[in-house]
Write the structure tokens for this entry.
Amino acid sequence: MDLETLLSYEWGTMAPEFIILGVATALSLLDLFMPKKVDRRILGWLGFTGILAAIVALVSLIGHDTTSILFDTFRLDGFAKAFKLILLAGAALVLLLAIDYEPKEGMKEYRGEFFYLFLTALLGAMMMSSSGDLITLFIGLELLSLSSYILAGMRKKNLQSNESAMKYVINGGISTAITLFGMSYVYGLTGTTNLKEMSLILGNIADPQHVYILGLAFFLIFIGLSFKIASAPFHMWAPDVYEGAPTPVTAFLSVVSKTAGFVILLRLLLAIFASVPVQGDGAEPLPLLLRMQDYLAFLAGATMIIGNVIALRQRNVKRLFAYSSIAHAGYILVALTTMSYFMFDAIWFYLLAYLFMNLGAFAILQLITSKTGSEDIGQFAGLYQRAPVLAVGMGIFILSLAGIPGTAGFIGKLNIFMGALIREPAHFVLVGIMIVMTVVSYVYYFGLFTQMFFRPAADDSKLKLSPGITTVVVICAAATVLFGIMPNLALDFFHQNFNGFSDFLQ
Amino acid sequence: MSLLHLAIISPLLLALLVPIFYRYFRQIHTGWFLLPLPILLFIYFLQFISHTKNGEVITETAPWIPSFGVDFAVRIDGLGLLFALLITGIGSLVVLYSVYYLSKEHEKLNTFYIYLLLFMTAMLGVVLSDNLIVLYAFWELTSFSSFLLIGYWYHRERSRYGAQKSMIITVLGGLSMLGGILLLHIMTGTFNISEIILQSGDIVNHVLFIPAMLCFLLGAFTKSAQFPFHIWLPDAMEAPTPVSAYLHSATMVKAGIYLVARMTPVFAHDGIWIWLVAGFGIVTLFWGSFSAVKQTDLKGILAFSTVSQLGMIMSLLGIGAAALHYPQLDDSFYTVATTAAVFHLVNHATFKGSLFMVAGIIDHETGTRDIRRLGGLMNFMPITFTLAIIGTFSMAGIPPFNGFLSKEMFFTGMVRVLEMDIFNLETWGFLFPVIAWIASVFTFIYSMVLLFKTFTGKHQPDKLPKTPHEAPIGLLISPIILASLVIVFGFFPNILSHNIISPAMESILPGLLVEGQAFDVHIYFWHGFTVELFMTIGVIALGTLLYFTYPKWSRVYGIFTERFSLNRAYDSLIENSQTGSYNFTKTYMNGSIRTYLVYIFSFFVFILSVSLVAKNAFVYDTSNVSQIRIYEIIIVLIMAIASVTILFAKSRLTAIILLGAVGYSVALFFVVFRAPDLALTQLVIETVSVALFLLCFYHLPKKRHEERMSFKLTNLLISIAVGAVFTLIALSAHSSKFFEPISQYYVENTYEKAAGKNMVNVILVDFRGFDTLFEICVLGIAALGIYAMIKLRMTRGKEG
């Protein structure tokens, strides 16, 4: 590759990534050369500004045509843009939480690392959503994972944090190995790592034997990636890691990292397995992906049941949210399973809603737990008496997570229901499980609610609000209600700018 | 956004101002600021009567989520208007009552009124929206505000219990209704109720028709406390009395009735609907009135009485729907049941509302609601006593009150079931009048218990926490208004018949009318000596007898022990799910990564082997396989022996060395297959890893020798299974080749293009030169890092 071709690429399409990369590098250098006494929080604000700049760059690219550079390894299509928006917004909010994070034992010398590791993880996630090649996809995944491993163990003096990082690394390593193994099969079958070429080659595959091997590869890849979205069977790490990791990291894992997991899942499954024709009983060959629906449905159902049922007895709020996040992954998997016409809308909107409601909840959780260091559900008792505004905010997030009408969470669930029922044949069992599990989830969500509103407070001291957390809570609550009452704002934006991802594989 | 929309959300908007009223006007009871709104709304809705009377339907639409076909469409017809008037009318009286009931010094009035206004908006939304999704949203909001209001006195354990119970049960029904809504959407392609009704004829034979109907009915039955979902209502009585009067008697629990009435044009074409609605209704009617007799708490009696009356209205709606199947008959023959349902709906709101308020007054003035401690209050509270007489007599169906009229019509409707000959009603239809009559006897008994146990008999001042005296006039205004309505509707029922009842029936049974026609409803006191009259006389006679002999037959209630009660079932369900979840968590999520891996790998092996077998994916192709010689067999044996011995190794050192042996044997394999470079690499890697292992293990704590590794069968099975499955997959993969192997390319080009004779060298430094370069870079960076760490440690050691 000579210089001329190198320069001929439209590097502007990568502007958001370059900004994040630049800021992350600058922060690490600044951290190195800044005097020890200077408060590292300034780095957090710099990082936040960087993310905002990246959002601006991304928004200015929204009208941009679908382009791909570097031999189709980096694509800027509707899919990439839509999900990058969620990733960036999530990361920006998480960074605000991180700036205000103050564990009991302090984190003076690591605070700088804290910020730029978030940025590198974000960069990995963004690369994933834009990549059109297995190699870049995998590198993005690993960049995200490795940064997350370190982030989870950021409280070096805290035993739980260490345990959490350890478990995360081991589980992550195994899942990565499985994913790679699956990817290698696909590569073996097609001889290319480029997703577009793969889909072309696989479109003409005829030998049933190859299809079986592809089926195996599908399972390997899916099982491996289920680690990232914390769904069955790779969900076990989530509660332990969520509990031990610093709260902003937990928020990051449950929102940004999960979104990235769905991004890579969608990219891979749709690019590779949706194009494999399988001769079925009927006359029309069906894509392999549709043939796999039953298995996906099983996994989605299992995920919803496990997440919700175990959450019933949790006293630790962070673990509770871990199980709740597993359950939510299950709901999104329902949308993926049904593969309806609305699949992209449903997943995108759900992730958007989930971003706001979950991050908002984590912001309040961080505020409350950091004060006492205890994460028991009892800490929420009497929150309404201590800080009515916070309690109402948390109330909104919980209602939204539970899917009560008037909140974004409800619209998200409704989207998924509609998608699942509109298909022929409709997925009644799956919808039934989802409805019953939603009722089960009410038990623990409203348990938390009861704590906040109906229990006397253990101590009456006022909670001190910091600017970062206040901003996050306000933004999240406003967005949750806004998208709940006027979901069209988001849905229209989605339809107008991303064309329903029609450019997904072009 | 029209004025109508604004009317619906106006309580919510007012709720935003409540904290201001509460904070800055502490001297004035917050309720006074709210009172004008429901009154204004009541007047606003009253003026629609002139429209609905003529069969006009007013609709307004505001776009909401057009992409789903969801609009905030509101519609005022007879049925919606009836409910809107109930909500705002009773709402005004309840707010007024609450001003005197809740002390402004001791209660958190701001939260109370915010919840109450939230409920008002929600309830108006339920009955006025024409879009099912909007209806559902408001529906859940009513459950939610009810949850908050029941838990208003949150310091009481029973309040919290009741709040959660009502929430779980009603929301379960709500979600089921959502399922029904979506099914209807699949069938009709719209969420708009009016449009769905237009298509109702086409969907009857759809396969989803019955499931959708069942989903809707579950929603309606849970909300309207029908047997066996009624168990939440008695526990909801922990709410402050104004709330019980408003939500749990007059309005919210009637949302289920509303839903059934609203969906009758859609679903009633099927006989199952008639059987289910009427059947559940009549069973609820009986069970509610039967259970009410044994209650000792005034509000408990009223709660079960509400359950039973809701069942009565429900059964009437079911029977009335049968009229759709007899279009040829005179229009009032079967529709009389529907008339009775609508009429009783209004009557129930009036007499039950006043009775709840009376119960609240007694609680307020004496400090207890237990009828075993009350008695002889008529001398102390004459006005309250009068109100109670009016309320209970109306409830018992004694003339001249409105309850008598609707009870007579109820009997008429039930007796006419005997003449139906559809859906097996000719066989089992006789049960309806029989059960209805028995239930009415019990209704009579508990009404009398309520009245006489409280107001007559011996006064027991020592058992009362407070000295009883008449309530302040403020508390009495609302029940007086309601009691007057009981009398007015009793003497002049035709005020309602054309203005309210007939338009409401038109919405329930639109199919029976020709354009421009209206139901001709006339309600009379005197029908002559009909069956109904004798039934009433029988009720009063037997009821009086049973009332006086109650101690003799009260043992009947002993048959239904607590053990098998529905409440017990609910409690144990909740408890078991909690303990079940706990046990599940303890074994499944025990925090040990080894257990997790067991689960992950077993799942993994399971799904892969299942798909291998199910898809018949295993292939084995020997064409590429070379001869197996004695060398290979020996090496494999060595490897196997070494691997197995590792398991039994006593010390770590032995284990590491054995592991090394496996690795070196692999290297030998490469030698045998004439790949010296690979063998060399393998040897180096093996040596390094053994060395690293040894280094690490040096720092580990000593292994205690007595600690023997226990034999774990599951682990053995899983490891063998993982190995086997992967071997099979690898064999299949090896046996299916799709492309020419890339090695041929190197064979051909190594010499020509790179002018090298050692192929491996050429690949490393030429074909994949960049890879090698970057690998070296990575290694270099890692080495630098390690160097830095060692150096850091050494300097720190010096400092330390």
